[in-house]
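User: Let's play a game. I give you a shape written as tokens, and you guess the letters that built it. Ready? Here's round one.
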């Protein structure tokens, strides 16, 4: 029995995947803001002479930037292009057999 997926189902699946990506990014960003804010307050209260909270802010900030890049710039179009390329390659390989 062959399963047929219509265009509406496919569009829903793509939209659902995109919402999960966005939700993951915004969850990560919210955690970043809350935790770094807490660390900054803790740092200023306990040792105002040395601002160490910049180190976790910088490290996690790089991760946030990479997550943003994959969610908003690289992920969507690059992933679809790569899937098409791999599918085309697979079709060429099966035709040559």
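Assistant: Ready! My guess for every position:
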């Amino acid at each position: 029995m062959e399963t047929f997926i219509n265009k509406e189902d496919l569009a829903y699946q793509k939209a659902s995947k995109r919402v999960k990506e966005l939700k993951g990014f915004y969850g990560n960003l919210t955690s970043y803001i809350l935790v770094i804010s807490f660390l900054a307050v803790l740092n200023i209260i306990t040792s105002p002479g040395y601002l160490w909270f910049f180190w976790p802010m910088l490290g996690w900030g790089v991760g946030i930037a990479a997550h943003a890049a994959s969610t908003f710039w690289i992920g969507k179009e690059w992933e679809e292009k790569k899937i098409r390329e791999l599918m085309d390659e697979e079709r060429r390989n099966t035709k040559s057999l």
